[in-house]
Amino acid sequence: MPSQTVEMPQMRVADESAPSITTDAQYERAWVPPYLAPGGAAK
Amino acid sequence: MLSPLYTQIDRTLGADPHFGAADAIEARNIARYRLGLTVLARRFPDAADRFERLGKADDAVLRPFLYDPVLRNAFEDDLLALENHRDDPSEFAAHLAEVDLDAEDGLGPCERLMTPRRRPWASRGVGWVWTEVGPESAGRPLARRLEELKDGTFADMRGARRISPDEELVAGLSRGAELLAELLPYAGAGVFPHISLVGLARAESDDGELYSLSGGDPLPSALFIAPEHLRDPWMTAEILLHEGLHLKQFDVLRTGSLVADPGHEIEIPWRLTPWSLTRVLAALHVYAHMVLFFAAAGEAPAELRERFGEPPVTEDVGVPTPGSRAAVEGGYTTSAERAAYLGQQALEVHGGALTPAGRRFVEWLMDAAASLAPSVRANVAREPVPSSAPHVPQPDPRGYRKIEPVAVCPLPEQGQLLAFAPDTAKFHWLNRHAWMIYALCDGRELAALQEQYAQHTGSDPAGLASGLAGLVAAGLVEPVVG
């Protein structure tokens, strides 16, 4: 559930090689072209 | 019963915690939805009560709302407006105001408009069929918006016409879903939780007649199929897998980017126009799974053949466009050939444009496909892409504090913390190492921070410096000043 406080993670972190922070990107959220009949050009 | 190799590949593709396991992907999307509702409640105080009520609902209640195409489109539009610092009114609040939050019937808002209501794979996901909007609901804003989003999705095609399904067509969907889930219990069955709206339609363009399509943000969690392809359960299963994989990938992308640089274009031998790297990954995702689908179909047990008929005898997945290199020279007609080409391009030629998650995504798919198709070389370019090491600034001795207001949602079972950056209005996913550093940033001086960090990790202090730099860049913490 959402919270306004950040608790420490309850698990070891030493086995992880590096801190990682990722996000999403607007340009990846559009759509893919339709799948057309064989002979078409989208698939 | 599939051979052990196929079962293993099915598990590899359907159970990967980052890209394959539907329940893990859904848990991340539910966390993002709940945190998004919290953020939008702050932004739109008049609607805060309803946002907060929905955010506190059980997963089973929340799920049909999360995947509802109109509400999801509006939710994403609201978040995008926030990210782009626009003062648009909340379309999500307007649509949510139409909905009875106390109905407790397990239906999503658009599904509730339908008459009759049909779920073709009720035990596997919340997918529902667009039958007809009842006359008492046709004038409602929710129904009009659903039509608008559908019309927008088909805007570039000619003669687009939605088809009202009869019971036989709905049964065709159910048969195809049953076959797919029995043939591939992990990778196949795993697409259904990502599908909400299932519509039938006919349309055409200069490139051919429509087989099927799926929506991204413009019509989320939705797919359309031409009704002709519901007669053969094998064809239906293939199409449900194809489009369901696209919808699954959209859900993956909401919780982490795969492409870092969207500017790359890739020549496609079987097409005339180049594809973006994002589209290449979407096609690779499908083709790698199709290698397994056709291999498993070819060895389908007698029991499945008796129930669903004979599987397809060809592995060809499409004819090269006339005038393309493949049309002249041959090749690139099977899933394996296309997966091999796309994976090699994504890793060897454009690997530097992928995020670390994007590289893992391609390698995961290549490994799976290569187990079945030796032409897919799984061991290409596994070395990290050469790049200059990013400069990590020295941490500020005054220490760091979180930028307020803090809004987070922990996912301890996945070792991740979802955090919202208030100034940039972006969601960030922290692994447990970055999560721990973020938790420690409470305004204490750097020396105290370093001491606590060493006690909790025993790691090289370079990790602290890079973690702090990442958190500053993400807009989650700032140096203590004054």
* Uncertain regions spanning at least 5 consecutive residues of chain A: 38-43
Structural class of the helix and strand makeup of chain A? little secondary structure
Q: How many H/I helices of chain B?
A: 17
Termini separation of chain A:
40 Å
Number of strands of chain B: 12
For the record, the count of structural domains of chain B works out to 3
- Count of DSSP strands of chain A: 2
Mean pLDDT of chain A: 74
Sheet-strand content of chain A, in percent, reads 5-15%
- Structural class estimated from helices and strands of chain B: alpha+beta
Gross morphology of chain B is globular
Q: Which series of helices and strands of chain B comes N to C?
A: HHHHHHEHEHEEEHEEHHHHHEEEEHHHE
Listing every helix as H and every strand as E from the N terminus to the C terminus, the arrangement of chain A reads: EE
Per the principal axes of the C-alpha atoms, what is the gross shape of chain A? elongated
Q: Compute the gyration radius of chain A: what is it? A: 21 Å
**What percent of residues of chain B adopt helix (DSSP H or I)?**
40-55%
Average pLDDT taken over every residue of chain B: 92
Distance between the termini of chain B: 68 Å
